[in-house]
Amino acid sequence: MEITLRHIAESIGGTVVGDDQVLIKGINSLVSAEQGEISFLSDSRLKDQIRITKASAVIVKGLISLYQGPQLIVADPFLAYARIATIFAPPIPRFPGISEKAIIGEGTYIGKDVSIYPFVYVGRESAIGNEVTLFPGVYIGDKVTVGKGSVIYPNVAIMSDCIIGKDVIIHAGTAIGSDGFGFARDGDVSVKIPQTGIVQIEDEVEIGANNTIDRATFGKTKIGKGVKTDNLIQIGHNVVIGENTIIVSQAGIAGSTKIGKSVVIGPQVGIIDHLVIGDRVMIAGKSGVVKSIPPGEVVSGIPTMPHRLWLRTRGHIRRLPEYFERLKELEDRVKKLDEQIKKEQIG
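Above: the chain's sequence. Below: its structure in token form.
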């Protein structure tokens, strides 16, 4: 597929400086781009790369004198890259119809134009919406709903009664609706608490590979519209995550915590149970969250504190050996002064 730079500009609301009829067949990095491809500059530190790029056009925030070819001027080059990459991305491969090697349970509704690969299992009384794609090894339990246009990649397990919205993407190896970690202690023995709730994932959510999203003890674990999770995320029972929140790899959220809208949770963050994280909070990587956070805060550290305070604190940590030696020296000096004062008082 080849399209003109002008057509690309019109589709994303950009302005072309130079030849807007140049044909573009793909998008690539500044270093790897070839003739016929468009590239982008979103980081001023990469300006040197624009001198050597072979791209037929570049996406920039403002006109760049270092590049002599056509330039597509946009407010946010990285966002423009994301939208243009979607134009050139290859379509998701789809099995034609329903494989004879798939197992479809009794009473299950299958919509139009579905793609169900071999070795998919769909339980009884489930509902698979129009244009859904189920890759090999997908397990869908009884009474599960999967909304229109959703894509479920290989070896995903969606347990009974869970609800998946429209245009949801769930990557390989994820488990949705496994039992929450609920036990009562009887002396040294752990007594299992039945987990009778569900998981509900709303529209336009994307779940990374090997996520685990536990069903609620009762009620629902809920993932709001537009949420994006990276790989290796743990979401405990009865957690509620607000719309458009982003959760980066290896983060873990314990049961019954409520995450607000448009929150950003960095990699390897741990959040304990029954907290409330306000809207638009940002939590830096490797933070340990042990208390609720008001809306709009930026926090980091173990335990978390305001990010600027953590930066100052972290700087002092490296100097603790020096502080210790200085403190020891000061203690020795104070001790000598005390002894001198006592001698003078006696004398």
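Helices lie at 5-12, 47-52, 77-88, 307-317, 320-346.
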